[in-house]
User: Which sequence fits this backbone?
């Protein structure tokens, strides 16, 4: 941490429980056995201790700041429970946003404080809690342990999903018997998340970097841009699977955060399938309270723009994030206007047009990701100029052997097929119903492929999760 001319590094007494580390897996298994062993009144305290250990592993700095934030949030929640009115709600929400704004935009004051772990997600959870207490969707809790467990739940704190209080409270406050299939599926989802990140995502990230740094330009740069769409998707989907699988092992049911988003034919459909917990959060706590679609088309479009611009601002402090949100909002409104006459068109016509819609929508989303990835317009312009060189694609010249080219194709095909399947089926439940020998053969193959390609098969190092820093 840097403050002015002074630098202080907090001592690291525990190995960091990063999601991709073996320490995290051991920690999750330990938490699973303890939380399942101590039911009833002791279970919330076990989870509370686990949350503190997890935060402390990243440093005392993160532990102290987040506990202070949770304590302040708890005091505001009591105030709101005892005095439920718009003034207490507004003060509570503004206090949360003030802390988030201070850390996210501290550069304006020339500060370099480390942003507390998962601050954005903690803030959004607090705001949703306050809003739900105010509207009566939940009675809230006066128990500080329940409140701290919800706000600081280690499984979801680094990169979501953003869960709501009432389902969490119903789980933590009631005795829960261990269900073998549910726990097994949770562990399998955790394994799949690590596999997805280490085997698929990190390899595509490596190929993307080679194509981008080759200096060949043209289709090689275009390949890198397209691969970035897959990288950010697989990265965040893997992180969500690890988080949801971990929560499931602990007995908590967290809704899925992705639902085959790149098979969407419109930007509206895309945002119903991408980072679902964030999309629904903005819908429930920004778009609908503003007026939603109840006040006519003009105001509806204004509210849509506000939501997307706020989403851009939440992601980062650079102008490009605002542009990223603005472009999504404009495309969302444009689609609504253009597609309005076709809403009642023949079903066969819509089915024929859908593949073209998917390709066009993917092209727009991929282009928009440039503003998400790069900090300045000059960098985006340089990438577009590089693509305009029209140099032919040359996988060999960017450093890919024939085997690596085949593996690249295999990964992309696997991603496409798995997205098509999970769009129509609950893949975990479907796989859980397969006969015992085939199911365990699949587990074994997963481990073998992970060891060959994820650990020993590449010259690339595992990268951190992209969304951890938002």
Assistant:
């Amino acid at each position: 941490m840097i403050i002015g001319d002074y630098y202080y590094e907090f001592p690291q007494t525990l190995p960091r429980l990063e999601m991709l580390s073996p320490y995290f897996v051991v920690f999750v298994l330990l938490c699973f056995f303890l939380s399942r062993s101590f039911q009833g009144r002791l279970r919330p305290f076990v989870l509370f201790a686990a949350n503190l250990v997890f935060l402390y592993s990243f440093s005392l700095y993160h532990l102290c700041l987040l506990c202070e934030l949770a304590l302040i949030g708890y005091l505001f929640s009591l105030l709101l429970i005892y005095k439920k009115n718009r003034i207490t709600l507004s003060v509570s929400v503004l206090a949360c946003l003030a802390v988030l704004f201070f850390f996210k935009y501290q550069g304006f004051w020339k500060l370099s404080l480390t942003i507390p772990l998962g601050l954005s997600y903690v803030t959004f959870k607090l705001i949703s809690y306050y809003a739900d207490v105010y509207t009566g969707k939940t009675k809230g809790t006066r128990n500080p342990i329940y409140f701290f467990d919800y706000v600081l739940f280690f499984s979801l704190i680094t990169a979501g999903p953003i869960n709501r209080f009432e389902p969490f409270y119903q789980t933590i406050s009631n005795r829960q018997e261990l269900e073998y299939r549910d726990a097994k599926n949770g562990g399998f989802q955790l394994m799949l998340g690590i596999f997805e990140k280490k085997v698929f995502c990190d390899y595509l990230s490596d190929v993307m970097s080679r194509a981008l740094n080759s200096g060949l330009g043209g289709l090689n740069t275009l390949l890198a841009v397209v691969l970035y769409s897959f990288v950010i998707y697989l990265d965040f989907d893997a992180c969500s699977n690890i988080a949801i699988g971990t929560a499931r092992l602990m007995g908590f049911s967290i809704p899925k955060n992705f639902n085959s988003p790149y098979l969407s034919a419109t930007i509206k459909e895309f945002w119903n399938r991408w980072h679902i917990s964030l999309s629904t959060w903005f819908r429930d706590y920004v778009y609908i309270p503003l007026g939603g679609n109840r006040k006519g088309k003009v105001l509806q479009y204004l509210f849509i723009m506000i939501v997307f611009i706020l989403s851009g601002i939440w992601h980062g402090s650079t102008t490009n994030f605002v542009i990223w949100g603005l472009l999504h909002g404009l495309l969302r409104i444009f689609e609504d206007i253009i597609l309005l006459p076709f809403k009642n068109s023949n079903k066969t016509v819509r089915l024929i047009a859908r593949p073209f819609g998917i390709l066009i929508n993917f092209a727009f989303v991929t282009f928009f990701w440039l503003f998400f990835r790069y900090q300045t317009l000059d960098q985006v312009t340089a990438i577009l100029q590089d693509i305009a060189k029209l140099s032919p694609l040359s996988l060999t010249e960017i450093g890919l052997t024939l085997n690596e080219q085949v593996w690249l194709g295999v990964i992309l095909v696997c991603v496409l097929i798995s997205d098509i399947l999970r769009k129509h089926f609950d893949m975990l439940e479907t796989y859980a119903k397969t006969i015992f020998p085939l199911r365990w053969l699949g587990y074994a193959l997963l481990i073998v492929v992970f060891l060959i390609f994820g650990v020993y098969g590449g010259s690339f190092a595992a990268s951190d999760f992209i969304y951890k820093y938002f």
Remarks:
- Confidence is low (pLDDT under 50) at residues 1-10, 456-462.
- The CA atoms of residues 74 and 143 lie 9 Å apart.
- The first helix runs from residue 22 to 37.
- The longest strand covers residues 2-3.
